[in-house]
Amino acid sequence: MNPQWVEGDWLVRFEPRSLADVEAIVQPSLDDERRFATVKRLSDINLGFYRTLLQPLVRAQARLVAAVSAQSNADVMAPSNAVL
């Protein structure tokens, strides 16, 4: 490896792996399952908050922007604005 290409304390190496290789390295544990379940629950709560509180605002804003844009385009394309 060329030292001028290496900075910091980390090196990365990529190797092809099979599912069997991964299964041999990763051992399931109850602690890991609890952590993943906690993260999933938090993610579900955040999605619920988004859908309840923010999504309606985002959709309303998107409709407003689309309506203003459509009106602006209609005004530009109006026959009174034609260049002869």
Descriptive tags:
single chain, 84 residues, mainly alpha, 2 helices, 65% helix, 0% strand, elongated
Written description of the protein model:
With about 80 residues, this protein is mainly alpha-helical. The protein has a domain at about 30-75. Helix content is about 65%, strand content about 0%. The protein contains two helices and no strands. The radius of gyration is 27 Å and the shape is elongated.
Largest sheet: none
Structural class, by secondary structure, is mainly alpha
Mean pLDDT: 86
Q: Report, as a whole number of angstroms, the end-to-end distance.
A: 68 Å
Shape: elongated
Radius of gyration: 27 Å
Beta-strand level of the residues, as a percent range?
under 5%
Order of helices and strands: HH
> How many DSSP-defined strands?
0
Low-confidence stretches: none
The helix count comes to 2
In which range does the helix fraction lie? 55-70%
Write the layout of secondary structure elements.
Layout: H1 19-25, H2 30-77
Summarize the entry for a quick read.
The chain has 84 residues and is mainly α. The protein is built from 2 helices and no strands. The longest helix is centred in the middle third of the chain and has 48 residues, at 30-77.
